[in-house]
Amino acid sequence: MKLRDEKDIIQLFHHDEWIIDILKAVKSMNLPDWWICAGFIRSKIWDNLHGFKERTPVRDIDVIFFDEQHVSESEEKKIEKELDKIWPGLPWSVKNQARMHKINKIPPYESALDGISKFPETVTALGIKLDKSNEIQLAAPWGVKDVINMEVRPTPYFKASKKLMDIYQKRITEKQWSDIWPKVTVYDD
């Protein structure tokens, strides 16, 4: 499937029953301001753009939400266990964005979307969820051009800090994305 814009990306996910079922599982948890994000989204897009017949292995399914009332890692682990009861064996990773600023040593986030905007790479600063009508919503605070063009760049938030750019560089080295998706180009700026 050719991808040109956000509508095409939504259609790509709409046609994947496995992903729709995962979205339904997370929606059933009734988490406030929830999204599935990051590599789970990017990998699906890049697999499609590379013409892969099979899905690349899923390292984790990043589920984020924003709840200032229940800010603890133990609460996140409880949600992971509940998701594992709904769909056992998937690599669930749940993080409340209302506490992640402490981990990342930056100012507090205002919402889950604000948290997504502060992810390291534009190609991972993506989220999807189902709305009340079970329609797919796509969050792309830095747009979808980079993920469609398979160009890895730091988000403007990371680019503004030498310390954060060091984290970006380390992640790029560790992830080795172009070994999995050879059409990917990584930029340092």
TrEMBL record:
It comes from Melghiribacillus thermohalophilus. InterPro entries: NTP_transf_6. It holds the Pfam family NTP_transf_6. This is Nucleotidyltransferase-like protein.
